[in-house]
Amino acid sequence: MKLCLLLPLALAFAGCSMSSSEVVHMRDGNLRAPSYADAQNYCEARKLNSQPVGKAPGDTGVLFRCE
User: Fold this and answer.
1) Total domain count for the chain?
2) Does 40 fall in a domain?
């Protein structure tokens, strides 16, 4: 019975744990962002220019580099 009550709560927290504009570092050294605007904002905050690399696998965003 307790598992049935805790499972929905755990799923709710898991769904809220990632920000929609979060930038993720990929294994190959590229970065992934939800959009080109998020990528540009991320690089500009570090006083760098964003260089698009392509689409992220599964259309989960865009791949880019900060140079």
Assistant:
1) 1
2) yes
- Whether 2 is in a domain gets the answer no
Q: Are 63 and 39 in contact (CB under 8 A)?
A: no
Residue 13 lies in a domain: no
Residue 57 within a domain: yes
Structural domain of 58: 20-66
- Report pTM: 0.67
Do the beta carbons of residue 63 and residue 45 sit within 8 Å? no
Q: Where does the chain have alpha helices with state H?
A: 2-15, 36-45
Residues 6+ apart with CB under 8 A from 4: none
Query: What average pLDDT score do residues 2-13 get?
Result: 62
pLDDT tier, 46 (very low <50, low <70, confident <90, very high otherwise) = very high
> Which pLDDT value is given to residue 13?
57
